[in-house]
Amino acid sequence: MQPAKALKEIQVGIADYKVAVSPNKIITLGLGSCVGIALYDPMTKVGGLLHIMLPDSTQFKNVTKPAKFADLGIPQMIRELERKGALKNRLQAKLAGGAQMFSGMDDKFVLNIGQRNTENTRKILKTMGIKTLAEEVGGNRGRTMILNLENGIVTIRTIGSPLKEI
Amino acid sequence: MGDANDNKLSAKHLDVLKEIGNIGLGNAATSLAQMLDKRIDMQVPETKFVSMEEAMNVIGGLEETVACVTLRIEGDIPGQILFVFKHESALNLSDMLMGMEKGTTKQLDEMGESVVKEIANVLTGSFLNAIGTMTQLNMVPTVPMFALDMLGAVLSTSLIAGGYIEENILMIETALFEEHDHIKGHFFLITEEESLSKLFEALGLTMN
Predict the structure, then answer these.
(1) Domain count of chain B?
(2) Domain A9-165 carries which CATH code?
(3) In this predicted model, what pLDDT tens digit does every residue of A60-105 receive, in sequence order?
(4) Contact at 8 Å (CB) between A3 and A157?
């Protein structure tokens, strides 16, 4: 199933991000309603992967982890990408996640959080002038996302489907 | 990470919660044993403050396939209950409850999903009943929500959708085992410190 791993994959936890350079790979496991945001500069081959949980930090009083939120996490990761040599206007985005995992009849259970995460992520990237090259969002499947910094290709792993490259 | 220093709850409070969990889950395990006509063993419940990531690490790998049923609790102790079964356990559970030979169910279809949801309903009912009888508090479970997918995706989504996004969630966790180990399930009760004042009051304890 998996290709032989010559290099270590750098793992990103929930509400976190990692920035690295080619030939590394960055991976985040099990995105559900969360959105994974891969940003990549093809010239310097510097890239980052962010795993956000919520669309908007302004609805919360105590913000301890900016990477939890799309509106704070994206600018923070971009600043770090720039420090590592990436140029903001060269960055290309790829998104995955934002699924609706649960089915049932509980009205107060927030089912559309995945969709809201995706929509706000798109909006923020657009406002910052970053082009989104590919998306693998919505639906009802969990996703693992791997960013290859050699070429910017993102591999999506789901249960019961073959690997998909975007 | 889960920093326990800010919590108002003492070791004594956590012990009480553990005991409450033990009684509630003991009752739930008995219901399950009756439903399946099998012996069900239960681990001593763990009660602790954890981050979302720590809660997920309790069960297994983030990409492991699990069936999850979640219900919210409304009333005096608002919270959320999660049942997590590894994929094979969910299949075995479905076989056992429908009186089929082990290995019959290969995929959890709509029927299998209903079976797992119903089990979660019954277990939640017995759990809340035991605590309600002891404390005279009112707790009502909502209808169950179901997902079958990667552990990380399922657990994070259920906690976010239920509103548990803080670094510090109170988790009462245990595992239930069927006698031949064909079924292993994890139970979580997730709540916030503030929701517990009524519980401690009912038991004659103060929060501070």
Answers:
(1) 1
(2) 3.30.1330.200
(3) 887 888 999 999 999 999 999 999 999 999 999 999 999 999 988 7
(4) no
List, for chain B, all residue ranges whose pLDDT scores fall below the cut of 70. Answer: 1-8, 167, 181, 207-208
Q: Do the Cβ atoms of A55 and A67 come closer than 8 Å?
A: no
Residue B207 counted as domain residue = no
Does residue B48 lie within any of the structural domains? yes
Give the pLDDT score at B23: 87
Q: Which amino acid is at B37?
A: D
3-state secondary structure at position A15? coil
pLDDT, residue B4, reads 44
Give the number of C-alpha atoms closer than 13 A to the C-alpha of residue B175, restricted to the C-beta side.
Answer: 13
First to last CA, chain B: 24
Question: Which residue among B72, B117, B153 places its CB closest to the CB of A101?
Answer: B153
Length of chain A: 166
CB A74 within 8 A of CB A5: no
**ipTM passes above 0.95:** no
Q: CATH no. for residue B76?
A: 3.40.1550.10
Of A53, A101, A113, the CB nearest to B147: A101
Residues of A in contact with B144 (CB under 8 A): 104, 106
What pLDDT, on the 0 to 100 scale, is given for residue A45?
97
Q: Which of A34, A67, A86, A149 is catalytic?
A: A34
Instruction: Please report, for chain A, the start and end positions of each structural domain, with discontinuous segments joined by +.
Output: 9-165
CB contact under 8 A, B62 and A102: no
- Whole-angstrom CA distances from B4 to B21, B143, B183, B193 are 20, 32, 33, 12
* Both structure tokens of A60: 């919360």
Show the domain range for B36.
4-202
Summarised one tens digit per residue, pLDDT across range B13-59 is 888 888 888 888 888 888 888 888 888 888 888 888 888 778 777 77
SS3 B18: helix
Active-site residue flag, A67: no
Residues A149 and A26: beta-carbon distance below 8 Å? yes
Residue B72 Cα, gap to closest chain A Cα (Å)? 8
Residues of chain B contacting residue A146, judged by C-beta atoms under 8 Å apart:
none
